[in-house]
Amino acid sequence: MNGGMFEADNSPKGLYIExxxxxxxxxxxxxxxxxxxxxxxxxxxxxxxxxxIIETKQYKQNTAIKYATQSxxxxxxxxxxxxxxxxxSKNLNIRNGVGILENGEIIFAMxxxxxxxxxxxxxxxxxxxxxxxxxxxxxxxxxxxxxNWIQTDGNFGVMIGITELK
Length: 166
What we know:
Elements: E1 16-18, E2 21-24, E3 41-46, E4 51-55, E5 65-71, E6 74-77, E7 80-81, E8 96-101, E9 106-110, H1 117-127, E10 129-136, E11 143-144, E12 149-150
């Protein structure tokens, strides 16, 4: 599935780290669009495979980070739904995001129908996440053959895949 927002040339929007290499620098600017809704954040995985989601303004460069993608806005912050979201918002789109359970397990979710930010945040909260980050919107696609969810059209920037070593 889409793993964050991207520029017109399909390069990542904001911080992007792959195999410990920073391929795109952190973006702390202000602007329009979902990426700049505050607070935005960073999803990362360390060399010890520990996941984290942190607000961009709290991020410190760390050589132990193996993978990272910046996006926004944060959906959940310390167990609370981002206060900028309205329960009855008519800002509806296909949306996807990532959250982390207290036991360290990562949850990825993508809507099959249009939802607002509040509804997506509530899903992560109900699953038990303390922090969750919006990754992408209406252009998002998922490839999950086991669930007969195969979307191979569209353009992609950052992608997140789950692999199984055998």
